[in-house]
Specification:
The chain is of the alpha+beta class and 388 residues long. It is 45% helix and 13% strand. It is globular. One of its GO terms (cellular component) is plasma membrane.
């Protein structure tokens, strides 16, 4: 048995043994549009994973990880999804913030923050988008000024996932007055539990509030809590986005496949499969899922080199569009029975939730429009889009 097969057997056996007893009811809990489900229990589960050494598996051992190879990381995320284990609460800290600090942080920053991520004692969110700088991140207006030994942060962020459950936020802010676009930005680590920070959940189509507005009104963080040099925030922020499209997306596809298989079974039961147009769309969905996996495997080469390159945008735009169309297919398979809510006042079925939440897939983590520009300019070498 190869080392990868041994690793697969180890994590599969551990999940089978641990998702029992007090954790048995967590199978399938959480996920897109359902982040509110059993949050305290899922947090306890993830801290249990930390005690057992199953958080941050891909991090180097010197930073608290297992030093898993790229193949082993893929196996971990696939097996986690196949076990129907609960959605992770520490994704941003483990998959985004941690790798960013390992790549760009100071030894002091790594010593301060990484152990807390490994232990799931501090949760993180991403302070990127703003009301006037969503898809165009380079237009951020949130500013930070150095006041002695502290940065003073003023501005507004929006669509900040799980900010209401987080302890810290990685904030892209403008630290050079008069600077524009990509220049003059810095990447700051800001505590959220302090005066000058207000978090307002945003009610979504699903009836839940994963996304938030975050207002900074003179919020403070230590001068040492800047990742990279002042003005290098764009480079650091883009690396974080690259890590976001990393190995964990292989596990995401297991969930996609499970959704497609459930839609096919529903179509067989309710007769929708007799519709030739539905059958054609199901076939296209199956083919698209295979393309998603091929794109993800191709992207692993970039991950092995340190971080995905702009080619990662190909995978993002494809899976986001595919998943949105899968939600539309699910509702068409449901037919008229898919229209009423499952219960009062706004209890949604799984298919309704899939349809509604997947509308955001083509927006968050880089909208389709921006991904097309990245592909055109950085992959194909076409002229840059004209800007005012």
């Amino acid at each position: 048995m190869s080392s990868v097969e041994e690793f697969r057997a180890e994590i599969r056996g551990w999940l089978r043994a641990q998702l029992t007893g007090e954790f048995a009811g967590l199978r399938g809990r959480g996920g897109p549009g359902r982040e509110h489900e059993a949050f305290p229990e899922r947090l306890a589960w993830e801290r249990h994973m930390a005690v057992e050494g199953w958080t941050c598996v891909g991090w180097p051992k010197e930073y608290g990880g297992r030093g898993a190879t790229l193949e082993e990381q893929v196996v971990f995320h696939e097996e986690y999804a196949l076990a129907d284990a609960p959605a992770r609460v520490n994704h941003i800290g483990e998959q985004l913030l941690g790798p960013t600090l390992i790549a760009f942080g100071t030894p002091e920053q790594r010593e301060r923050f990484l152990p807390q991520v490994v232990a799931v004692e501090e949760l993180w969110c991403q302070g990127y988008s703003e009301p006037d700088a969503g898809s165009d991140l380079a237009g951020v207006r949130t500013r930070a000024e150095l006041d002695g030994e502290e940065w003073v942060v003023t501005g507004q962020k929006i669509w900040t996932s799980l900010a209401h459950e987080s302890d810290w936020c990685c904030v892209v802010a403008r630290t050079e007055p008069g600077s524009t676009r990509h220049r003059g930005l810095s990447y700051l680590l800001v505590p959220l539990d302090q005066p000058g920070v207000e978090i307002r959940p945003i009610s979504q189509l699903t009836g839940t509030s994963e996304f938030n507005e975050v207002f900074f009104d003179g919020a403070r963080t230590a001068a040492s809590h800047i990742v990279g040099a002042p003005g290098e925030g764009w480079r650091v922020a883009m690396a974080t986005l690259g890590f976001e499209r990393g190995v964990s997306t292989l596990g995401q596809q297991v969930g996609f496949r499970r959704e497609l298989e459930a839609i096919i079974e529903l179509a067989k039961r309710n007769g929708a499969a007799r519709d030739p147009l539905i059958r054609d769309r199901v076939a296209r969905a199956w083919t698209g899922l295979e393309i998603i996996r091929c794109n993800a495997l191709r992207m692993l080469e970039g991950i092995a080199a340190g971080a995905p390159g702009p080619e990662a945008s190909i995978g993002k735009i494809f899976w986001a569009t595919w998943h949105r169309e899968l939600g539309e297919l699910a509702m068409d398979v449901c037919g008229a029975e898919g229209m009423p809510a499952a219960g009062a006042p706004y209890d949604l079925t799984d298919w309704q939730r899939l349809f509604l939440f997947s509308r955001s897939d083509t927006l968050y983590a880089g909208s389709n429009e921006i991904q097309r520009n990245i592909i055109a300019e950085r992959v194909l070498g076409l002229p840059k889009e004209a800007r005012p």
